[in-house]
Amino acid sequence: MSQWESQHALFQLSSLGILSVGVNYECPGKTDLSAAGTCGKMRRRGNLVKFCSLFRRHGSLRREFRTVPRREDIRKILLIGSGPIVIGQACEFDYSGTQACKALREEGFEVVLVNSNPATIMTDPTTADRTYIEPLTWELIATVIEQERPDALLPTLGGQTGLNLAMDLDRHGVLEKFGVAMIGADAAVIAKAEERDQFKSAMEHIGLEVCRGRTVRTIEDARQVVQEIGLPCVVRPSFTLGGSGSAIAYNRDEFDNLVRSGLDQSPVTEVLIEESILGWKEYEMEVMRDLDDNVVIICTIENFDAMGVHTGDSITVAPAQTLTDKEYQRMRDASLAVIREIGVETGGSNIQFAIHPETGRMIVIEMNPRVSRSSALASKATGFPIAKIAAKLAVGYRLHELPNDITRKTLACFEPTIDYVVTKVPRFAFEKFPEADATLTTQMKSVGETMAIGRTFKESFQKALRGLEVGSFGLGCDQKDAWGTDEQPDEEEIRVRLSTPNAERPWYIRYAIKQGMSVEEIYRLSSVDPWFLDQLLQIVEFEEALSRHHEIGTVDTETLREAKRYGFSDRQLAKLWDTDEFAVRAERRTRGVVATFKSVDTCAAEFEAYTPYYYSTYEEEDETPERPSGKKRVIILGGGPNRIGQGIEFDYCCCHASFALRELGIQSIMVNSNPETVSTDYDTSDILFFEPLTTEDVLNICDRVNPDGVIVQFGGQTPLNLARGLDSAGIPIIGTSVDTIEAAEDREKFQHLLNELGLRQPANAIARTMSQARIEAEKVGFPSLVRPSFVLGGRAMEICYDRTQFERYVAEAFAVAQGQPVLLDRFLEDATEVDVDAVCDGQEVVVMGVMEHIEEAGVHSGDSACAIPPYSLPGPVVQEIREATEAMALRLNVIGLMNVQFAVKKENGKPLVYVLEVNPRASRTVPFVAKATGVPVAKIAAKLMAGQSLEQLGITSDPIPSHVSIKESVFPFRKFVGVDIVLGPEMRSTGEVMGISERFSIAFAKSQLAAGVVLPESGKIFLSVSGRHKEPFVPLAQRLSAMGYELIATSGTAEVLRGAGILVEDVRKLAEGHPNLLDLLKNDEISLIMNTPNGKGARTDEGKIRAAAVQAGVPSITTLQAAEAAVVAMEALREEGMNVQALQDRFEPVR
Questions:
Q1: Residue 297 CB: number of other CB atoms within 10 A?
Q2: Which of 214-228, 656-670, 751-765, 1083-1097 has the lowest mean pLDDT?
Q3: CA 20 to 30 Å from 1016, out of 158, 283, 753, 1149?
């Protein structure tokens, strides 16, 4: 093709308006579409066909149009990760960071990565060239920059944390000092998008409306603004994650409180006061721009919930369903204008809009000048790898120079066109925080999300609800459905639930429909668009039509097929027809009503898709690839949506399983429903199925791909819950058998095994009824640990010290257990807990890591800090633990991973080792152990499951760590005002960080800094400890006093400390009037709180103090052991600073 022909082809593409091709599929009449996308496709089909024929004539255009090479003045690039998983910033940034590392390295750049989260693929030593697992502070990153001397910093792929740190580095002159250029977006651009006054001016300059209001830095200025705009209004702190501190003020008192809190939470002490646009429709546009000012729209996302609910907490749908063509084009034009005006040179941006549902007035809410949470959703929804393309654009490529990996024929300047509907539903964890307000507001509260793809909104919506894993298998008519039961809500409750945004609202819309409410009435109460409500009405009407059939045999085949196209699960149909889901499955398979799979191809099937990325529906044609000749296939079941107790750690394991299978020449097939993850990246596995993790959906996939094995060990509890059903259906489970996994959960069998091996176990029992629990409690004794079986993250696990507590907690445990037995254990007070991760091939065992918990027994292992190697256990005790682990692994015939929890308790002066629990599967500590030892534990385990032996892999001895590594947990208490932060047996952390050093003290200090706990160098420390801790606490207080800290305490603790000759100031208890500790907290006089609790709960004085400390940003330490470690760290920091070291310098990576 000549240069003239190339230019002519570009002119043709431009004249055809390819930048407008297909992202809006809404039908103006707002009726349901038999295939989502029909309207948009019809509107632009002529141009799309011409465009396709042009490509077929000229072939791939990349070689012809390569006009500007990538930047040659850059050799080394620094990426900053987003840190621990927190509400508002989850594993989507591991996905984007990992994509960026791969994209930059394949172009020959050297990549330096800094992140504090060990549970990420990006922090594997093979992902970047130089990997630093260090606290994310600008000072430590400056040390990394000084050591590594990168040429550039790419700040747009590490979420708000990465962006804020880049701004700090610029503000403190670090980038200028070391000659580091910001690429993608510079400091001025970031400030223009993030600082509200600058953003408002920019929007006004291009003629776009923003909410009336302005930023303030004092409460006095805030009151002046609210005089102008009135109440209700929105209060939003600047530069915070997930809308932290953001809320709607309805009265003056709320307003003052929110402003004060927001000024405190904002890292720049700035709050935005804006007019309320509650009830408006909300949309997001994912936009990309290159250095030549080419701009493309990747995806349009519409919120199911109206304005007033944070977009991270709203159900969202792509493509937008209710925009008219005119509205879409107006929003599209505005998006192009915004990204150009703000000046994001290259990469992805997220722009949020609000539209008044009646007047059509459009407001620009905000712009994220970076890859965002929604970017991961848009990438998975369209197949367009936003983070990868953003990274390549940042180093000089243009959109027309980058091929689409999926089609291999189209280019990145070709906007994605999709002929299906994607629905994202957030996952919440309010059951972990019963004292918290569960109302959804402008501050994000969800801990995870699931995504589903279907041909229609109805199909994808029901699939998403069952993928949420909350006990529902669609929109009602399942085991969780309260309609027609004693718990059926009355009309008043339904009205309250519709008018107040909450996690259960979709199901209450169904109840409202069944109650007889009209779409108009439901819209008035909920502000959910009538088009969506009409879709849910159609689902309910079809459900009622199905229920008129009394058995499946009377249902004709077309109706059955239509039910599946509406997204009804076999479980729902079984409930309607009083049978079981396997009978429904068998009947529909007999009639040929089977799932077919379509590819996610970015181009509405106009081009062949080379990347096998699939979703299920019920049509005639199936697009799954033929089985490769002579090649084995293994399915890996992922962990589904993130939640407390099951998060990114398990996704990490699933990814490593895929890497291992590929290395062995086995075709890896990933099944998962979480759009935030690396496992659902289209190039992590050989085949990806984006499907809910239910028995039905997994069996549908097995029907198509006929796997040689399924891995259930790596995705947490989710796949384990499916294991028995899959095994019963004849699906081969590889690795540790289902019988072994269940035997480890069976109390009686496990107790018999321990007795045979001569291992100790605390007194324990199992109860299936309340009366049986009372009898067994007499044998077990107090204190006892009560917990339901087969639950995640210690759900409803409590320590009972007396009969009264026992009665209450056991009743709660039975409610959560849902028919499963409740487990009772004697609780070992003052014991040290130990976690062990090991791998076994059935013949040999290698202990990969022995982790000593810093907090005492009674704190959930997922919430406790822990250290590798053990820092206080005697050598013989550690050896006894290793030997016990080996004996259990061999007796259970474990093939793959195993996690064991021990307790070490001194009795008569001698440490005794007790076995608490065995899990023959991946645990959440696996990534931490891998980073601490340099051994890819999950990858090795996957190879063992595929038939390799430890000897074949060259793994013959336990790894010996060269440094001290400490894992610390990160909690979401700041999001839940008033919740008591005391740790217990039920897990409440959302993420983790890691501190590494040659010394325990510095490693602990790093872990605290990474978790956001800044150990003060000076100031006042408040001390209040329980009776049994007062005497052990005296030496710690003496050391704090010797370091120059001012100590204050309540009367009881102060009296003990004075008796030991320690200078201490008294402070009043809350009941004794003012000034008390709450006053000191509000006056910023307290630097640290050390409080071991007498009582637990937000209503106690102690609980109020701890909750107030969280909101004031004052670190609180609530266990004696953590206080001891903190004092050691504070002493060490006076002697030496924190150094940084790349993982690659600590150990040679094992591949």
A1: 24
A2: 1083-1097
A3: 158
Q: Give phi and psi for 836, each to the nearest 5.
A: -130, 130
Q: What are φ and ψ of residue 151, in 5° steps? A: -85, -30
pLDDT tens-digit series, residues 678-694: 999 988 999 999 999 99
**Which residue intervals of 107-218 are DSSP H helices?**
138-148, 159-171, 174-177, 187-194, 196-205
Helix, coil or strand: residue 784: strand
Q: pLDDT tens digit string along 359-377?
A: 999 999 999 888 888 888 9
pLDDT at 1097: 52
- Average pLDDT of the chain is 89
Residues 6+ apart with CB under 8 A from 629: none
* Cβ atoms within 10 Å of 4's Cβ, excluding its own: 8
In which residue are the tokens 């905000």 written?
366
CB atoms within 10 A of CB 819: 8
In 553-598, where does DSSP find H-type helix? 557-565, 570-576, 581-590
Contact 398, 618 (CB under 8 A): no
What is the Cα–Cα distance from 1083 to 519, expressed in whole angstroms?
Answer: 51
The pLDDT assigned to 16 comes to 37
pLDDT tens sequence across 726-770: 999 999 999 999 999 888 877 788 889 999 999 999 988 888 888
User: What is the model's pLDDT at position 53?
Assistant: 41
Tell me the β-bridge partners of 912.
905
pLDDT at residue 798 greater than cutoff 90: no
Q: What is the DSSP string of 413-439?
A: TS--B-SSEEEEEEE--GGG-TTS---
Distance CA 170, CA 153 (A): 11
**592 to each of 446, 588, 980, how far by Cα in Å?**
39, 6, 55
Burial 83-103 (b: 16+ CB within 10 A, else e): bbbbbbbbbbbbbbbbbbbbb
pLDDT in tens, 223-269: 999 999 999 998 988 877 656 778 889 999 999 989 988 888 887 88
1126/1119 Cα distance (integer angstroms): 11
Cα–Cα distance for residue pair 94/1023, rounded to 1 Å:
39
Q: Look at strands 822-826 and 866-868 and give their pairing.
A: unpaired
pLDDT band per the 50, 70, 90 thresholds, residue 166: very high
**Could you tell me which of 383, 439, 460 has the C-alpha nearest to residue 416?**
383
Q: Kindly provide the residue ranges of all beta strands, DSSP E only, lying in 895-1045, ordered along the sequence.
A: 895-907, 910-919, 964-970, 991-997, 1020-1024
Using omega within 30 degrees of 0 as the cis cutoff, is the peptide bond preceding 232 cis? Answer: yes
Q: Which H or E run contains 452?
A: strand 448-454
The Cα–Cα gap between 306 and 278 comes to 7
Q: At a CB cut-off of 8 Å and minimum separation 6, what does 286 contact?
A: 297, 298, 299, 300, 301, 348, 349, 350, 374, 375, 378, 386
| Residues of the chain above pLDDT 90, percent | 67
Length of the chain: 1151
Is 60's pLDDT higher than 60?
Answer: no
- 3-class SS at 12? helix
Q: Give the residue among 987, 979, 159, 246 at the shortest CA–CA distance from 643.
A: 987
For residue 608, the one-letter residue type is: E
Q: How many CA atoms lie within 13 A of 1115 on its CB side?
A: 20
Q: Is the dihedral of CA 946, 947, 950, 951 positive or negative?
A: negative
The answer to whether 373 touches 286, Cβ cutoff 8 Å, is no
Q: Roughly what angle, to the nearest 10 degrees, separates helices 557-565 and 581-590? A: 120
Which of 1115, 1101, 1094, 1123 has the alpha carbon at shortest distance from 1034? 1123
